[in-house]
Amino acid sequence: MKKYMAEFIGTFWLVLGGCGSAVLAAAFHDTGIGFVGVSLAFGLTVLTMAFAIGHISGCHLNPAVSVGLFVAGRFNGRDLLPYVLAQVLGGIAAGAVLYLIASGKGDFALGGFAANGYGEHSPGAYSLFAALVCEIVMTAIFLFVIAGATDKRAPAGFAPVAIGLCLTLIHLISIPVTNTSVNPARSTAVAVFVGDWALAQLWLFWVAPIVGGILGAFLYGFVASDGDCAAKP
Question: Cα(first)–Cα(last) distance of the chain, in Å?
Answer without folding.
Answer: 18
